[in-house]
Amino acid sequence: MHIAQHKLHHSWEQAFALGVLCNLLVCLGIWMTFTSKDMLTKSFLLILPVAMFVSSGFEHSIANMFMVPLGIAINAFSPESFFIAHGLATDAFADLTWANFVLHNLIPVTIGNIVGGASLIALAYANKPKKVSTETNTAITTTHFEIHNHHLQNNHQLQGTNPMKNKLNSLHVSDIMEQQPLTFTADRCIYQALAMLTEQSLSAAPVLDKNQQLIGFVSEQDILRLLWSEEYSADLNYQLVDVMQTEILTVDASQPITTLIEFMVVDKEKLFPVNQSGMLISTQYQSYEQRLKATSAHRPSIYPVIHNGKMCGIISRKQLAQLMVKQYLPDDKLEQNVA
After folding, report:
1. DSSP string, 235-299
2. Least C-beta-crowded within 10 Å: which of 174, 201, 233, 244?
């Protein structure tokens, strides 16, 4: 009751300032937990600023919603003998009222909490210059999607002395792409196209016009879907123009290999379930390892490669896997393993 009454004796300026300092520490504690994946470490990091604001006597509106109403309830429902037993006058806590609580504590403290948490912490982080993201972005046009090229120079400087990663970051799509891929024209018969894809063990191929400009992309799945819808008829007059995809994910020839691998195999929104403001959007706790297993990116496994607006090759997940094999198992080690 003494603590509750003391909280109502602050001036508006004092209550506001104590509210600012309090929620600054609370929100800072939340941000600090983002630096670790371990639950014990998160708990320890959160305890530090919370313990500091409690021991310093700062004001938190949510904590006060428990402490002050408890004091009001004790004062309202305790018999006269309770006060006499503690050597107190019955009107010693007469100012413990709902009106005083709301006007002299809850309102200024809440405003201070908002300023301290939202302005001094969240807004400060939101306005902080952002490092170049490792996440590959996509931009839509009327006819196709294009994976933009990010060299990620800042990230490269932070990679330390990881020789494998440094070596991979020095490679670009043009270094491993298939420069003379199978291509189709839009008037190609779907049966012929399916036969050529299976003969060359390909899952998809680009469709070009007479000027060798990319106009579409067709996969085995596109053709099989059409055959299913037509009851597997062998007398269809469909051409690739009828089944090809015209919204195409393309890759720039100068794009680093590492950013393409990340785009193809990792759904970072699932791996790191936070929005652009850094707020957690997942209601279920999972460790990093658990989330990683569930972050498969549902994206194509093969892409046309574009340079100066023209297609110059294709690159697939298979080529990336072959690159990884060569990096981790050079020819001499591979021969030893086979032997």
Report:
1. ----BHHHH-BSS-EEEETTSBHHHHHHHHHB-HHHHS-B-TTS-B--SS---HHHHHHT-B---
2. 201
At 287, which CATH number? 3.10.580.10
Q: Which two tokens stand for residue 290?
A: 């658990």
For residue 170 the two structure tokens come to 């020095």
Do 8 and 79 fall within a single domain? yes
- How high is the mean pLDDT of the chain? 83
* Residues 142 and 102 placed together within one structural domain of the fold: no
CA distance 167 to 37: 28
Domain that holds residue 69: 2-126
On whether the CB atoms of residues 147 and 303 are closer than 8 A, the answer is yes
* Same domain assignment for residues 166 and 310: yes
CA distance linking residue 292 with residue 13, whole number of Å: 48
Q: Where residue 51 sits, what CATH number does that domain have?
A: 1.20.1080.10
pLDDT of residue 158: 44
Residues paired with 172 in a beta bridge: 256
Does residue 132 sit within a domain? Answer: no
Please give the full DSSP string across 113-145, using - where no structure is assigned.
Answer: HHIIIIIIIIIHHHTSPPPPPSSPPEEE-SS-E
Q: Does residue 226 form part of some domain?
A: yes
Give me the mean pLDDT over the 71-87 stretch: 92
Domain boundary among 105, 126, 147: 126
* Residue 311 neighbours by CB under 8 Å, 6+ apart: 206, 208, 212, 213, 214, 250, 304, 305
- Summarize pLDDT for 222-236 with one digit per residue, the tens: 999 999 999 998 888
Q: Are 274 and 219 in contact (CB under 8 A)?
A: no
Residues 259 and 205 in one domain: yes
For the stretch 140-187, pLDDT in tens is 333 444 444 433 444 444 445 577 778 888 899 999 999 999 999 999
DSSP state of 68: H
Total tally of structural domains belonging to the chain: 2
pTM for this one?
Answer: 0.49
Tokens, residue 43: 């708990």
